[in-house]
Amino acid sequence: MRRLMLLSAAAAFAGLAWWHLPAVAQRAAQPVASEAITFEQYRDFRLHDLAQRRARLAKQLVAPELSAAERR
Question: Does residue 23 lie within any of the structural domains?
């Protein structure tokens, strides 16, 4: 009886440890202070990225092989 109790306790403990492992693996690494970006850096990046996207879209829209349906 005691052996069964110890075996079930060990199985429960192993199950809980196994259940907790994916959560530990999914934790994001905390950025080092030197790697953190400021809001201004993020804003500048987003503005630059949006300008590049607009330029690419403008090139695609003036392409002669684009049908009227694709331009909408």
Answer: no
pLDDT tens readout for residues 34-64: 778 899 999 999 999 999 999 999 988 888 8
Question: In which domain, by residue range, is 56 found?
Answer: 37-63
State how many domains the chain has: 1
Provide the whole-model pTM.
0.45
Asked if residue 51 is part of any domain, the answer here is yes
What single string gives the DSSP state of each residue in 17-58?
A: HHHHHHHHHHPPPPPPTTT---HHHHHHHHHHHHHHHHHHHH
Task: Output the six-digit token pair for 56.
Answer: 């690419």
Do the domain assignments include residue 43?
Answer: yes
What is the Cβ-side half-sphere exposure of residue 42, based on CA atoms within 13 angstroms?
5
